[in-house]
Design a protein that fits this description.
The chain is of the alpha+beta class and 354 residues long. It is built from twelve helices and 15 strands. The strands form four sheets. Strands 2-1-15-14-13-12-11-10 form an eight-stranded antiparallel β-sheet, with helices on both faces. A three-stranded antiparallel β-sheet has the order 5-7-6. Strands 3-4 form a two-stranded antiparallel sheet.
Length: 354
C-alpha cells in the first residue's frame, strides 16, 4: 500500500482521507451496543491508505471445522467462504488473457468431453462458460439449506463420487442465461477449466498468477475428500492480503506498476449480466449495487464479493475505497446485516468529501 502524505499534529488518517475523524469510535460504539455482531476484522483503505482497522477475537471455523476462540490480527488467515468465487473470476480472467482457457462463448460441456452423454439434452448443450461465470446455467441448485444439511447442493457435490458429473447432470429448470440461480457448482466447473487449461491445480496457478505478484505469501485453500480445492468457498487469506486484491482492482488491474488482470476483464466482470432475487446486479461472480455517501450528490456504484458468515470485499471505485470485513456468523440467515451496516452506516456514511 502506498503511504499518505505526512499528517499534521491535529489530523487523523481518517480525516486526511476525507472521513469523520470519529469513524473508529463509531464502529466501536456499534459493536459495544450490540448493533454490530460477530465481527472479527474491519479493514478499509482509500487511495491506498488505511483509514479504519479493527481486529478482535471470536469463535471461528475453517470451512466448517470449529477452531474455537481465535485472536485475529493482520497475520491471521480467515475463511473467505464465497468471496472465493470472486477471486476465482479474477484467476479465470488472468488465464484467459494468457490464452490458457477458452473464451466465455465456448460451450461448457465441450470442456468436459468425459461427460459427452450429458450433451444430448439440447438446453444443456447450449450452456456456455459465460453462463457459469454469471450463475445463469439454468440448472437446479439449492444452497438455501444450511451447509450442515447434506441436501444443500454444495455439500451434496462435495459428497458425490464425481463432483463435476454431479453439477453437470442437474436438471434443467430454465433457459440458460435467463435466470440467476446461486450455484457453487458453477464455480467448481470454472475451477476445473482453469486447472485443465493451465496444467496446474487452482491453488498453484492462483499462487503464481495472482498471489505472488501481489506479494501474498501465505494462503490456504481447503479441499474436499477427493483432494480438489473448493473453487466455491475454500480460500483463506489475511485481511491485508484480501485488501491488496481490492486495491489492485481499484487500480484497474495494476499493482506497483505491474499489470495483474486486464482492465477489460475487470470492466466486464463489474458489468451487470443478470439481476438477483434481492434486486442486486450480478456480473462475472461479483455482486453489484449502489449506495449513498455524504461526499456525493447521488448514490455511487459498488462491487463486492459476498461470503457465508459475513465475509465481504467491498469496492467503490468512484470513491477509491476498498473494505474487507471478516465475521463469524456462519450459516445464519441474517449474517448479511452487520457487514452491510458497517459498509453503509460506518464507512460510506462517514465519507465527508470526495
Amino acid at each position: 500500500m502506498k503511504s499518505a502524505e505526512p499528517l499534521s499534529p491535529t489530523e487523523s488518517p481518517a480525516e486526511t482521507l476525507g472521513f469523520d475523524p470519529a469513524i473508529k469510535r463509531k464502529l466501536l460504539a456499534g459493536i459495544e451496543s450490540g448493533l454490530l455482531r460477530d465481527l472479527h476484522v474491519v479493514l478499509a483503505a482509500r487511495s491506498g491508505s488505511v483509514f479504519l482497522d479493527h481486529y478482535t477475537q471470536g469463535n471461528d471455523d475453517e470451512w466448517g471445522r470449529p477452531l474455537g476462540q481465535v485472536a485475529f490480527n493482520a497475520d491471521a488467515l480467515h475463511d473467505l467462504r464465497s468471496v472465493t468465487k470472486s477471486i476465482v473470476s479474477l484467476i479465470y480472467g488472468i488465464a484467459l488473457d494468457r490464452g490458457l482457457v477458452p473464451p466465455l462463448e465456448a460451450t461448457l460441456l465441450a470442456q468436459f468431453p468425459e461427460y459427452a452423454d450429458l450433451a444430448v439434452h439440447p438446453a444443456r448443450a447450449r450452456i456456455t462458460i459465460g453462463h457459469a461465470l454469471t450463475m445463469t446455467l439454468g440448472m437446479e441448485w439449492d444452497e438455501n439449506r444450511p451447509y450442515s444439511d447434506p441436501l444443500n447442493s454444495e455439500i451434496a457435490m462435495e459428497l458425490a463420487p464425481d463432483r463435476y458429473r454431479f453439477v453437470l447432470d442437474r436438471p434443467i429448470i430454465a433457459e440458460p442465461g435467463s435466470r440467476w440461480i446461486y450455484s457453487g457448482g458453477s464455480v467448481a466447473l470454472i475451477g476445473a477449466i482453469i486447472a485443465k487449461g493451465t496444467g496446474q491445480s487452482l491453488p498453484d496457478f492462483a499462487r503464481d498468477a495472482l498471489f505472488t505478484p501481489l506479494g501474498i505469501e501465505r494462503f490456504h485453500w481447503s479441499a474436499g475428500n477427493d483432494g480438489v480445492a473448493s473453487a466455491a468457498s475454500g480460500l483463506r487469506l489475511t485481511a491485508p492480503d484480501l485488501l491488496k486484491i481490492g486495491q489492485m482492482l481499484l487500480g484497474k488491474g495494476v499493482w506497483n506498476g505491474q499489470r495483474i488482470v486486464s482492465e477489460g476483464w475487470i470492466e466486464a466482470s463489474f458489468a451487470p449480466a443478470i439481476s438477483t432475487p434481492d434486486g442486486l446486479g450480478y456480473g462475472r461472480l461479483w455482486f453489484i449495487g449502489d449506495a449513498p455517501a455524504p461526499a456525493f450528490d447521488a448514490p455511487k456504484p459498488w462491487y463486492a464479493g459476498f461470503g457465508n458468515g459475513g465475509q465481504r470485499l467491498w469496492l467503490m471505485p468512484e470513491a477509491d475505497i476498498a473494505a474487507v470485513i471478516y465475521a463469524g456468523k456462519y450459516d445464519a440467515w441474517d449474517a448479511w446485516v452487520t457487514p452491510t451496516r458497517v459498509w453503509r452506516e460506518i464507512i460510506l456514511a462517514n465519507l465527508q468529501r470526495a
